[in-house]
Amino acid sequence: MALKTLATITSICLLSACNPSKTTKQSQAEDKAVMTTRSTEAPLWLEEVEGEQALTKVNAWNKRTLDKLTTDPRFTQYQQAALDIVNATDKIAYGSYRGDKVYNFWQDETQVRGLLRRTTLSEYAKTQPAWENLLDIDELAKTEGKNWVYKGSECLQSNYDRCMLSLSNGGKDAIEMREWDHQTKSFVKDGFTIPESRTGISWNNQNSINVATNWGDNSLTDSGYPYIVKSLQRGQALSEALTLYSGVKSDVGVFPFSLKYQDKQLSMLVRAITFYESEYFWLPENAAAPIRLAIPNTANVNGIFKGQLVLSLKQDWQPEGSDITYKSGSLVSFDMQKWLENQKITGLQLVYQPAERATLDGVSITANKVVISLLENVVNNIYVYDFVDGHWQHNKLALPDNGTMSVSSANQDSDIVFINQESFVSPDTLYQVDVSSADISAIKSIPARFDASNLVVEQFFASSSDGEKIPYFVIHKQDIQYDGSNPTLQYAYGGFEVSMKPSYSGILGKNWLEQGGVYVLANIRGGGEYGPAWHQAGLKTKRQIIFDDMIAVAEDIIAKKITSPQHLGTMGGSNGGLLMGVMYTQRPDLWNAVVCQVPLLDMLRFHKLLAGASWVGEYGSPDIAEERAFLEKISPLHNIDPNGNYPSILFVTSTKDDRVHPGHARKMAYMLDQYGHDFEYYENIDGGHSASANLKETAKRTALEYTFLSQKLMSKTN
């Protein structure tokens, strides 16, 4: 379903083209008008993504860091271990079941950029399926002289052979879209083509699509996303497309999608006003204007099931004319046909209401069931719901109780779903489930990538500054000594309602746990572990509580003598990179090493860089006095003490990251350089927001990170 376009902009785990709308000189002039100029500021030429002066500085930092880390024998060991894991031929080939085929995108040592392929459902269940190769991205990149990274496809539901493929040059969020035919295994001659942009499309039929893209003439929002949706017919030039809807430049973005209803597709669009407030519209055929769906701006549309439009709520809602209040975090539904006829919401029903420490973790609609993943005290369970005789009923799916479960594939044409199960110490197992018959079979699994025989997983709760109990997991060898000497890595994210769940990482296991390291996953506020309220507790000027949670966990594991500041490191990326910057500046005494990945660090200019304007709903706006005052207090770039005693820090970013600007890491490194503080820096020239465009680059990046952590937290003899 095309709601994935909105999901792209609503997860900074955020991960449009790079669209600086102003020159450096213009930006400087504006900044002087709205803020007091500090005596020491990082130069804005560091924001010139591929500027010669900036890249000269980056290359010098890269060389210094690579010389220091790659000459450590552990780097070669960690890189080879990571390569063996990411390139393993016995990993699970995760598939999406569409039509009567299972589609898979495969990468390994020889298919570096990847291979799009498919097989039948019965063949997929075999240990060695016979695959039909569709598109070789490596060959395409070689032929066209581009560093193509495959970013998925949007297929016509009535004919899954016809798709719009998304290709990114170097891993950017900005994509080029081309029409592809799986049947002929070729791009469609004179087919639909959308140039590089942060594009969203939905199919009306085989000869018509709705498109949101860069139409030129200042048609992108301040966040760099499109806000104009047009209808494009086969054979038309983009300039001939008919405008269906136009938002405003201050929106985050506007995107088309479709809802399957009975035997047809309803054309819809979503206008993201802010990161957490959206309006949904129906686009009736031949109508003069779109019709707005009158639901709360914070609600999410999940789809239509047996005539019921299913919504997830992020705030309490008492519909007009009703005396019932539906609680935040609930799943509700109403009769879609009646709404289509008169645009009135009637007969609202409760599908699910969460308990105190539970939350919705995923909603999937199949042909005859609704599959709901719940997170209950940070443990997953899967439930199957049905709408029978005007009422919702459900039962729990009988899967083994073992860690994290997630629906990896589901669609509305079938009751076959794929469910993945994993834990910190148990490798992934993929189940094929018929949710109508409850027939469950384990069809794929991966062998252990590291020795977990002596590992223990424990869950503890730390008391934060306001008394809230913050859950965290600790994974360690059974025979560790509680003397504060254990090298420990604490990881967290803390934002955008993204839940951090137990997962199996071969690289973490091989290059950290197996080496004697302890791993801590902190479920701090800002995430979605306990529902919308857990996230909303740290929005905007309330964000310090998120940082307090992280500090509380660190202090708790130190108090338990699991580790000590000399042996404690921390890691986080994107929004978690901001968290790392704050931990570095607010509590440098807690850590001896910080790994700061693709970070936000300049919180007074984040809204002017790439997609940054879309995140003011999370962080607040530097253009609002009260919010700016708070942001200035937490902004890592603006809170470096020239005479401070700081831990070692490694910045990891990417030149091609067109979501979180590499200028954040560059400017922080520059200021540390000016003050003589110790830091390491690695900027991958490709890679996008993941900082890795392919598996080989992933292996190198992680090897650098674990080498750095080992140098700082482990003895040389380990």
UniProtKB/TrEMBL annotation:
Q: Does the keyword Cell cycle apply?
A: no
For this record, the Gene Ontology CC terms, alphabetical, are: cytosol
Stored InterPro entries: AB_hydrolase_fold, Pept_S9A_N, Peptidase_S9_cat, Peptidase_S9A, Prolyl_oligopep/macrocyclase
- Transferase is among the record's keywords: no
Keywords (A to Z) from UniProt: Hydrolase, Protease, Serine protease
UniProt domain Peptidase S9 prolyl oligopeptidase catalytic: residue ranges:
512-713
What is an annotated GO biological process for this record, any one? proteolysis
User: Where's the Peptidase S9A N-terminal domain?
Assistant: 45-443
User: Listed GO molecular functions?
Assistant: oligopeptidase activity; serine-type endopeptidase activity
- One Pfam family of this protein, by short name? Peptidase_S9
Know the name of this protein? Answer: Prolyl oligopeptidase
